[in-house]
Protein: tRNA-intron lyase
Amino acid sequence: MAPRWKWKGAEAKAFAEPVSETVSELQSSLAQTKASGFLSSCNVLLSVEPEQAELLDRCCFGRTVVSVEKDKRWIQLSFEEAFFLFYKLKCIKISLHGRSLVNEVDLWRSIRSFKPNFATSYKAYSHLRSKNWIVRSGLQYGVDFVVYRHHPSLVHSEYAVLVQSISGNDRLKVWSDIHCSVRLTGTVAKTLLVLYVNGNVNTENMNLPLCLEDYTVEEQTIRRWSPELSREDETKT
Structure:
């Protein structure tokens, strides 16, 4: 599926401002100011400078929280976004109940206490981010994520992503589930992308972010077959 750019000139703007370069700029800025966030039971609230809030928006990390403060901005990050910035980019600090989580093990265990399946969801998220896809919540489409080739203001999302883990969730177990998911994503002009996160990880290692190295991600796209588009023209002249 070719990218569906939202306006004339959007493609040129996207090529002029690669996502990878903007992420590097963001990483440097956040690391220099030692930006910090607060972990709650459902997300991370990050305090940043106005310029950093703009960079976060350009990279599509989090959502801005309305505030009356003029010299500070508050950004609501998902667990996956926060851990990516903390663990992968190493550019933010996070605290819980006033206590700084000084290393990735503390943060990992704290997040998993709120979200037990965090290992597989983060593995899928980081897999897509490492390929420079913009990753956003897919809640409104009934999937885990939707991914964009560039900023959503420039291009429509191309894939609706479902994460299937070895823990054995019940999604896509029967054909009716597959049919419903494909039809739904097709009506909004997206392709269903299933990420199978597999690995042999023992219970003890699940408490450490190093377990991520034991997972592999297999990608599979599922599209609806349309006989009208595939049937041979039988008309003879």
